[in-house]
Amino acid sequence: MHDIVLIPGDGIGPEITKSVTTILDAAGADINWIKCTAGLTAQEELGNPLPDETLDAIKKYRLALKGPLTTPIGAGFRSVNVAMRKKFELHSNIRPAKTLPHIESRFDNVDLVMFRENTEGLYIGKEQWVKENSHAESIAVVTREASEKVIRSAFEYAKKKNRKKVTLIHKANILKFTCGLFMEVGEEIAKDYPEIEYEDLIVDNMAMQMVLQPEQFDVIVTTNLFGDILSDLASGLVGGLGLTGAANVGDDAAMFEAVHGSAPDIAGQNVANPIAFLLSALMMLEHIDENDLADRIRQAVYLTLEDKSVCTPDIGGSGSTTAFTEAVVKNLNK
């Protein structure tokens, strides 16, 4: 049995968490859920958006499934999500974007995976006023150690998943030290994987190429800010954030999460789409080597997408969270 920390989250989080755990339980996943809390819900209940009990549980079990969180105003840090990634040194944010059957999107054959460095870059929070309300500075940090971790993770993923190419994204033509270092590390590591094609692209060219011919990309690796932007762009290619999963993986811990927001405007209405969170859970199953189980659930999702009467309104359906969940459970045995 796998002990996994479960954080339902805020807004629609509890609804999509119930959907996902119902589906995993019905599929026979051997999981003991360790329920914890974080975000706005934790702030309201415990006076702390990131309780020690939650951090202790993740530290103990090293594996978590986390719903969308809202960082309360004045919480003491910029983002609960970022704080958790840094706390457990989850250096690689992994965001697949794959065309799904029976989902309208602009492209038919997208199947790419974005690796984003998750712990440094411009997101370290080193900002200051040079002259208040007139001149601000923000510092980006890129280290060889963190670059090596995320780039090697991308190549190892490509090797394990029989992917053919890794594309490194940078702006080394302008940011010669930070992106230059990242690019240098990429070139060094690529030599260890001669069977995998390697290329690098400047980030602005990459953005254009992704909307012109996204099918040309396979595994992509980049720095924190660029990855944040391009991973959302990738989700848009296949239908939006409601259709893509996400993982945050470190050397000895991993957290799988919904990348979309907590959507408080539709919370409690039974119309939230659980697919993104479910795909994150399937990434989690693959992480613990439950590949056959993940594939079985994925096929049930694909079959369910054929019937728009059970799909949620955001993907053209007339159904509900509950109806979709029940349909996936039913299709597990087909």
**What amount of the residues lies in strands?**
15-25%
Biggest sheet details: 10 strands, mixed
Helix coverage percent of residues? 25-40%
Spatially, the strands of the biggest sheet line up as 2-1-3-12-11-4-5-10-8-9
CATH class of the largest domain reads Alpha Beta
Overall geometric form: globular
N-to-C CA distance: 26 Å
Order of helices and strands: EHEHHEHEEEEHEHEHEHEEHHH
- Given helix and strand content, the structural type is alpha/beta
Average pLDDT: 95
- The overall strand count is 12
Keywords: Magnesium, Metal-binding, NAD, Oxidoreductase
Protein name: Isocitrate/homoisocitrate dehydrogenase
Cofactor: Mg(2+)
Pathway: Amino-acid biosynthesis; L-lysine biosynthesis via AAA pathway; L-alpha-aminoadipate from 2-oxoglutarate: step 4/5
Notable characteristics:
Isopropylmalate Dehydrogenase, Rossmann fold, 334 residues, ten-stranded mixed β-sheet, isocitrate dehydrogenase (NAD+) activity, alpha/beta, magnesium ion binding, 12 strands, 2 domains, 11 helices
